[in-house]
Amino acid sequence: MKALDRITAAWIVTVLLVFPIAILLGILMRLNQANVLELSSLTFYSFMTAHGLLMVGIWFTMSMAGVSYLLQRYVEVKVWPVTLGYVLTLVGVVLLLAAIFLGDFHTGWYFLYPLPFYARTEQWATTAFLLSLGSLGVGWTVWVLGLLVAILRKYSLSQALAWQHLVGKQEPETPPFILITTTTLLGLVPAFIAAVVLLVLFFIEHLSGVKQDALLMKNLTFYFGHTLVNEMLYFGIATLYELFPSFAGKPPYKTKPFVAAAWNLVLLVVWTAYFHHLYMDFVQPTVVQYIGQLASWIAPIPAVAVTTFSVLATVYRSGMKWWLAPTFFFTGVMFWIIGGLGAILDAIVANNFVLHNTLWVPGHFHTYNLLGNVLFSLGFITWFVREKSGDDSSRLYRPVATLYLLGGTGFVLAFFIAGSASVMRRVDKYPHLVSSGSFWALIGAIFALFVLTAVLFYVFHAVRRCWRVLVGSS
Amino acid sequence: MLACISGLLLIATGILGAQLNEGRYYLRRLPDVPLILTDGEQTSLYRFLQHQSILLTLFSARCGGLCSPYLLFLKQALGTAPEGFTVLALSFDSRDTRSDVRAMAHRLGLAEQPGWRWGIIPPEHIPRLLTTLGYSVRYDSARREYDHSIVVVVIDRRGNILRRMEGIQDASLLKDLVREARGEFVLSYPLPTTEVALRCFELDKETGSWRLSWGMALLLIPPATSFVVAVLLQLLLLPVRRAKSCQKGSAC
Amino acid sequence: MSQSTVLTLFLLGTAIIAIVFWWVWRSSYQTASQSVEPLRRWVFIGLLVFAGIFTGLTLSRMPYFLYADEMPARVVHVVARQFAFAISERPIENDADYAAALGQTVELPVGQVVEFRVTSFDVNHGFALYAPHGRIVAQVQAMPGYINRLRWRFDQPGEYIAQCLEYCGAAHAGMHARFVVK
After folding, report:
1. B-chain residues near C69 (CB < 8 A)
2. pLDDT value, residue A471
3. How far apart (Å, rounded) are the C-alpha atoms in residues A57 and A356?
4. Over 70: is that where the pLDDT of B200 sits?
5. Which residues contact A73 (CB under 8 A, 6 or more apart)?
6. How far is residue B33 from each of residues A357, B40, B127, B130, B138, measured CA to CA in Å?
7. Helical H runs in A248-308?
């Protein structure tokens, strides 16, 4: 086995082993909200912090791993940045879990300033948390730069961004995978630098006590956090562009001028989309709020007009052989658009006035993630398993697809309906004020159990096969 | 590193102890006191307010301390012809005459400026005005001067206090008073504190347009650095791309 | 848009999307060589029109300058701190003011503009107004170091609850205050 095969398998095994644990944490939270369980508030919020950080962490890294693997079709990919990313991610996660479960660190996954200085019982937990972010940051930044270097060793920047296709030239050809991966990597670099700035400012206050500006810190936090999760979705799309046509027996997608235009536009727009997280901070300049709504509405247009249409056109009357991988990708696109609909409705400032921080928000991002980005990564993993073992997971097809998709749909719908009833997010117990909250929490937990069942079947199947790749002989 | 240096510079600058305690005085209506302006006009506060809202500041022409430097600071911060409001500088010192105040205005170069009006209040009306403003003065007989602080108040055309600031202001705090004096609704404003290291933005005191401050500069570091990184990688890897092209037989 | 309208639009949109995807999936069991590429242009135009209409209709309804031209009948000071709101018509500028304001029940007038001046003494909190019917009618963030001004006219009398909506620590769920509109 090649080194890249092994490290990809290592990522898959690790992510798939952590995934059910992270889901379980989420189910326990919903059961607590449904009054089926009685967790202490501290335990609930520790679970909430761990659930968010683990989910974002594993699926961001899995999307990077998928892209790193496929990139070797076009350029020489060095393994050491991928491996370093793996090691430093493990270090970061261990520190994080220590901070959360030993130090009672419970800020929630986006650690909004100045909560890290308040939401812990042990002083060292904040230090451990900040060091963990440092480890993750270094690992992921080196990995991103490693992939960028790999691309730019073969393609110039303008070619990687397909600027020649923008003006109608056919040569040199930039595959869509390279275009989307490059725009996504370039979108991540400033996000990580924002995280560095954020971390430095946190450390300054942690060590000297000098307070930072809460508005500046919130801007940096969401500049990093929103961009991270947005770009991780685009890595999944890159994977889809690369693999999906072959599932339908069709030739690879080409970078037509509108494809090049769409992704270059996305590169610019995605940096300002994060403003929609600060709509209810009236101190944010109003012009920035307008930009946030405009950017949030512009960004989906390429997604729908380009990617979704292309996928639908690929499937339409194609005689496609449906197995688990294309099913994951196809339904992932559908739910990506549905999650996007939920997002753009909330990204209207007038709506956000009454929806901000209700369950509508986890409704849309769970749709994007559990039913969008995760499905793209599962599509890649299923394809990888077939490539390496010949097993196309056909025995799993009906039970996994049915349980996962139905369970996921019910789970996120419970969030959306409760959110429209003004049930708030991030509370361990629903106050009497929002009496329907407990009911929808129970519904959500039941449907999530279906998802967990499907995931356990899948994990058992895929981990065994990838483990053989990991330990297999060269 | 840049963030650290920026932070240290701004810690050194700080914000100089202004008190934004207008809460107690918000919408409190001033009494309609008579005014004797330096150009001879005799009017009342309400009649004066009919034409514009004002930014009121109080001083003593006999003050050997902060009054003159502070009025010069206001001149610099607000300009001689501010738009949308008038600066009304009134003496709280019952000993000051119209000539005293006019002379002071001349010394500061503000006597004939269209946006600035100067005047005195008949002594029997001074205490009522000061009480409503929450502004206290204490006469020091040894120095024959008043001990007092600096105050700036925004008054709307109905005579209501909209904003009140006591103490030396940073321009970023004064900007909000200026906007309210112009009749704008200020959606949010920072609280004065000596501990915050960096802020995102400040409004230009005269034009009301946004101006970068160090905090916003920190927000621009990520895209700027990314651009530099992308360009650097592009240039550094150029020889590698050329070598690969040569190997493929392209013109070298 | 009310929350019910948003939910209806979302469910309607979801149904349409699901139907389109289901229909395309069903079609995949046949083969044909026709290209649907000419449709892309219309999809793009349709999206632009849809986005343009919604953006145009909604950009003018920003909540930031509600009742900005009116003088509020009352000004209410709100300070958020782990884990209680202090709400008072007297300014709350320090710990003593905060302690004095805790537990006060404020009565506000129906049909008149009220201005809330909201800040925090520690971490970010949210100040969300829940009407007697149990839905949020307005909200603003409470950010330490800043005062945010929210103007609102209460058209319905009754007991309102101000709930913290920004996660602020372990007792976040219980952080709320009541006030009466009559």
Report:
1. 185
2. 87
3. 24
4. no
5. A177, A242
6. 50, 16, 11, 11, 21
7. 257-273, 286-298, 300-302
- Contact by Cβ (8 Å): A83, A7: yes
What does the alpha-carbon distance between residue B47 and residue B32 come to, in Å, rounded to a whole number? 9
- Cα–Cα distance, B166 to B22 (Å, whole number): 9
**CB count, 10 Å around CB of C132?**
12
Strands (E), chain B: 34-37, 42-44, 53-59, 85-91, 116-120, 138-140, 145-147, 151-155, 161-166, 188-190, 201-203, 210-212
Tokens of C164: 């913290």
Among A101-105, A178-182, A340-344, name the one with the lowest average pLDDT. A101-105
Cα–Cα distance measured from residue B25 to residue C148, given in angstroms and rounded to the nearest whole number: 18
Structural element, H or E, at residue C120:
strand C113-120
CATH number at residue A416: 1.20.210.10
Which sign does the torsion angle of CA C180, A430, A374, A225 carry?
positive
Would residue B165 count as lying in a domain? yes
Strand bridging mode B34-37 / B116-120: antiparallel
Q: How far apart are CA C103 and CA C94, in angstroms?
A: 16
pLDDT tens digits along A352-377? 999 999 999 999 999 999 999 999 99
User: Which pLDDT value is given to residue B213?
Assistant: 66
Could you tell me which chain C residue has the CA closest to the CA of B20?
C93
Q: Are B89 and B117 in contact (CB under 8 A)?
A: yes
* B24 has pLDDT over 70: no
ipTM of model over 0.90: yes
Say if B73 is an interface residue toward chain C (CB within 8 Å): no
Sequence letter at residue B143: R
**What dihedral angle (degrees, nearest 10) is formed by the CA atoms of A191, A195, A198, A203?**
-170
Q: What is the largest CA-CA distance in chain A?
A: 65
Q: How many domains does chain B have?
A: 1
Domain for residue B208, yes or no? no
> Which residues is B37 bridged to in the sheet?
B119
Chain A: partners with 3+ C-beta pairs within 8 Å:
B, C
Question: Which helix (H) or strand (E) segment is A326 a member of?
Answer: helix A324-346
> A110-114, A383-387, C82-86: which range is least confident on average?
A110-114
Residues within 8 A of C (CB atoms), B 186-205 only: 186-191, 193, 196
The shares of helix, strand and coil residues in chain A, as percent rounded to the nearest 5, are: 80, 0, 20
Minimal Cβ distance to C147: which of B27, B160, B189: B189
Q: Is B187 on the interface with A (CB under 8 A)?
A: yes
In a domain, B232, yes or no: no
CB atoms within 10 A of CB B100: 17
Candidates A142, A139, A53, A62; CA nearest to A96 is A53
Residue written as tokens 């247009």? Answer: A301
Rg of chain A over Cα atoms, rounded to whole angstroms, equals 21
Q: Which domain holds residue A405?
A: 3-471
C interface test, pick of A48, A254, A317, A323 with most C CB neighbours within 10 Å: A317
Report the C-alpha gap between A219 and A107 in whole angstroms: 17
Of all residues in chain B, the one with the smallest CA distance to C73 is B27
Inside any domain, residue B13: no
State which amino acid sits at residue A360: W
Q: How far apart are CA A228 and CA A242, in angstroms?
A: 21
Q: Which DSSP category does B158 fall into?
A: T
Domains of chain C listed by start with CATH number: 3-61 (no CATH), 66-181 (2.60.40.420)
- Give the global pTM: 0.86
Q: What is the CATH number of the domain that holds B44?
A: 3.40.30.10
When divided into structural domains, chain A yields a total of 1
Structural domain that includes position B99:
18-193
Q: Could you count the other beta carbons within 10 Å of the beta carbon of residue B80?
A: 14
